[in-house]
Prior knowledge:
Distance between the termini: 17 Å
Helix content: 10-25%
Strand order of the largest sheet: 1-2-3-4
Amino acid sequence: MQQLIDDVTEYLDLDPRFWNKDDGEFQYDGETVFYRRLPDSILLSVNGVVYEAPRP
């Protein structure tokens, strides 16, 4: 899970497909990951479990 958090905090701010989206989903290692971007963090939901990752 830590690898997902590390990748997502960079990925969502670098990939132009996600720049203007505060809510969305993507595939990661065969799992659907739902996200919500907040001012200071990103909420991730994988298999019904919610994780919070600080934004860089």
